[in-house]
Amino acid sequence: MTSNHPEMQGQQLHILYVDDDDNDIQLANFAAPLAGFSAGFHSVKSGAEAVDYIQGQGRYSDRAKFPMPKLLLLDLRMPRMNGLELLAWVRSQPELLGMVIIVFTASAHPADITRACQLGANAFVQKPSSHTELVQFLKLLKDFWGGFHEFPQIQQTTYGHHLPRPKLIP
Question: Could you tell me the sign of the dihedral formed by the alpha carbons of 170, 114, 70, 163, in that order?
Fold first, then answer.
């Protein structure tokens, strides 16, 4: 699906998938091209790495190679900085107000759903149980968020090194 909106024409929906499980990352990276992401789908293995990516620090400083994501797919259960802590950090940054955050986890515990919504998640999705469902889910993300959702016009230069770093659990 191609957007009819001028804001999205020539732009790509960039997704950052944050998950510490290598198998889940490999499955998502395999499914992404099948869902129509020839580029624009990136993954990191921790909340701290996601912060570096969002801030464009370290190995993520090249924005041509590691573009600012418009959407985070966020696992909850990760060491040092879990998904809820990363969600709270992103939502505390005024510069990241328009970033879409979808909690994407194996958990469907009501307390997790409630807390994620309280912290400002746009959606809470239990990870699909099959490869076919994962591809379908990614296609739906691309079609809706990339084709219909109106993102705020924020200059990428407003993101970056000045964002305060979250405290990490040792």
Answer: negative
- What is the total residue count of the chain? 170
- At residue 161, the pLDDT reads 47
Q: Do the beta carbons of residue 104 and residue 125 sit within 8 Å?
A: yes
In-domain check, residue 155? no
- Of residues 98 and 11, the one with the higher pLDDT is 98
Asked if residue 102 lies in contact with residue 75, where contact means CB atoms within 8 angstroms, the answer is: no
Q: CA-based diameter of the chain, in Å?
A: 47
pLDDT of residue 159: 47
Q: What is the pTM of this model?
A: 0.82
| Whole-number Å distance between alpha carbons of 122 and 102 | 6
For residue 74, give its domain range: 15-148
Q: Is 120 left (phi over 0), alpha (psi -120 to 50) or beta?
A: left
Q: What is the pLDDT of residues 39-56, one digit of tens each?
A: 889 999 999 999 999 999
Mean pLDDT confidence for 109-122: 95
Amino acid type, 70: K
Residue 168 placed within a domain: no
What's residue 101's pLDDT? Answer: 97
Residue 4 domain-assigned?
no
Has residue 5 been placed in a domain?
no
CATH of residue 69: 3.40.50.2300
